[in-house]
Amino acid sequence: MGERGRGCCPPMDLMRSEPMQLLQLIIPVESAHLAVSYIGDLGLIQFKDLNAEKSPFQRTYAIQIKRCGEMARKLRFFRDQMSKVGLTPTARSATQAITSLDDLEVKLGDLEAELVEINANGEKLQRSYNELAEYKLVLQKAGEFFNSALSSAEAHHREYASNQGGESLETPLLSEQETFADPSKQVKLGFITGLVPRDKSMAFERILFRATRGNVFLKQATVDEPVIDPVSGEKVEKNVFVVFFSGERAKNKILKICEAFGANRYAFTEDLSKQSQMITEVSGRLSELQTTIDAGLVHRGNLLQAIGEQFEQWNLLVRKEKAIYHTLNMLSIDVTKKCLVAEGWSPVFATKEIQDALHRATLDSNSQVDSIFQVLHTREMPPTYFRTNKFTSAFQEIVDAYGVAKYQEANPGVFTIVTFPFLFAVMFGDWGHGICLLLATLYFIIREKKLSSQKLGDIMEMTFGGRYVIMLMALFSIYTGLIYNEFFSVPFELFAPSAYVCRDPACRDATTVGLIKARDTYPFGVDPAWHGTRSELPFLNSLKMKMSILLGVAQMNLGIILSYFNAQFFKNSLNTWFQFIPQMIFLNSLFGYLSVLIIIKWCTGSKADLYHVMIYMFLSPTDELGENELFPGQKTIQIVLLLLALVSVPWMLLPKPFLLKMQHDRHHGESYAPLPDAEESLQSEANHDSHGHEEFEFSEIFVHQLIHTIEFVLGAVSNTASYLRLWALSLAHSELSSVFYEKVLLLAWGYNNIIILIVGIIIFICATVGVLLVMETLSAFLHALRLHWVEFQNKFYEGDGYKFYPFSFALLDYEEE
Questions:
Q1: What is the pLDDT of residues 736-752, one digit of tens each?
Q2: Which of 26, 248, 410, 734 has a CB 3.0–4.6 Å from the CB of 372, allowing a cystine?
Q3: What is the per-residue pLDDT across 6-20, written as a single tens digit (0 to 9) for each?
């Protein structure tokens, strides 16, 4: 929850959530709307629903919400219409701002009616235009049919007349003159013209043939350009057809088939003079319609432009009003129906601001009675509210994704700001890759004002939101990369020359046997002489594995120490004595001791086998250590530590359930007791108050404690082993980087061919970006996330709270409509 620069607020404290209070506000009806509006501007009260038993339709302001919903629908309609023509609402304010909801409702109604009418007229005109365009095509194509038929008939007639003088084998047996002489023998053919979609034309022809048993003559012509269908409004490839038939029955069948195939039919005359006249008329009407349609589009564009200039203001006003009435519906009406009663959570520091907002609402609404502000005492668990800024909010989101902190418990987000990017960098250590990651992040940070106002994609939105997390990850990666002395897997003598030199020229066989120490120890990080030697991998494996255990034990100890601060804060002495102390003893008797052995071995240069020491500490604790002894009295200390670890297990398991039962029996015997002021009343008695005097289930408490003990004992081993992922991923990243450098870049360089070199460089860049800067970054991020959620936070973090969601107009921009 971002804090937006209020200078009057106390300094930010992320360690514990803000102290909260349950408020009761009694607001006169005449100033209620304005009071809720000012509180929404403030954004510091989370209202409780005091009408939860009522349905939305039974609430007081249901009619106003319905009106706001209808106005929101009209605004969505306007936005859809603007998006269709490519208009975007402008952010500038209107010259005459509408502040009244009633005025806006009338204005939106008039605009919608006008726009709907313009759209309807435009659709009718466009449909008429499309029909006339099709009609013109029919007139042209069908006219060509009839012209060609007429010319062929005339040619046939002339040929017949020329052959009339002499008899021949081709002379018809029945003279046509006889047929023309007898009108009863003449057959009158009808015809239907229109357009049919080209993909249906073959099926159309087959169905016509079958339905009329071949007693039709179909002629089709392809239209070169797709035409806009008058019904669907889409561009469709069509054929012009003419169907000749005989008889009324055949005509009815053809009409039904045309209807089934979506063929548009148009009237046509055989008279050639009328045809040319109709084409001229249709062309004239088309030009008139086009002029009318263009004028309508200009008018519609001007109207949408005017709407767009005020759209954002109207939209914000409607959404604010709807949010206000939703909030007013959560308030209960006093029996006198003259005031509204509100309850809600708010931070303690906001008391003065809320009182000022209520007083201002009373003055502005000319109310005779001021609002009443009072704090209620309750044992209900308050919501959790951390005031974060753009830097800390992403780290807090990482913690909240696991679970929202219980009210005022220690917040892991404070330590996550440092430990999360550092553990990521341990796995990602390469200062070349770190610089690439930093440059990419700086792009987001430099342009954050511009990018924050834009709509980004899901992945870009997530990356932009975590830009400061990635920046710290990059900075820590540069730091660990300098320690590992790796720049795209290449070592550099940055801080001093290498401490080792070749004893003789034969030491170029990549072993440390031929190297002697000639200078002071390399001052910072790994000596570059280790890179490329045969002993590099065993050395770095040993170093990184031990370092992972040290980091893991340190972070787990931090988690247990935070559980102590939680116990002290909530005044829970049982958790201090029977959870914190035995857990510290158990973890440090085993893995704290191992960490001390690692440091001693590093300092003394001993060759003791720590695996052997730890295994036989359990199997044979009384045996002599021999050459594995790192300091005097080690065997005695190991026996003492092992006994302490064994004692701490029943110490965690047994006393706490019995002491809780004794506490319950003592409190249960008291019929009346003063309301405790201590913070543990929120923690220990919330369930008791909500469920009444329920029976204390000792078996459940004991089983819960047993599970908790087993989980910690086994988790101490598994969690320590889990930190070895730091070593494994660091090794994988280093080896992958080395492979890409040696097998791609150096190999391409060795060919002495410019084309191969360019191809090699391109492959190296793509592999580095795709695998090391994207996939490896995501992998290391997820592993660091797991180490925080599971290994660190399970030592102290309950995470069963709920977030503080205040009524705030500033959050309206992030809500989905």
A1: 999 999 999 999 988 88
A2: 26
A3: 433 444 468 999 999
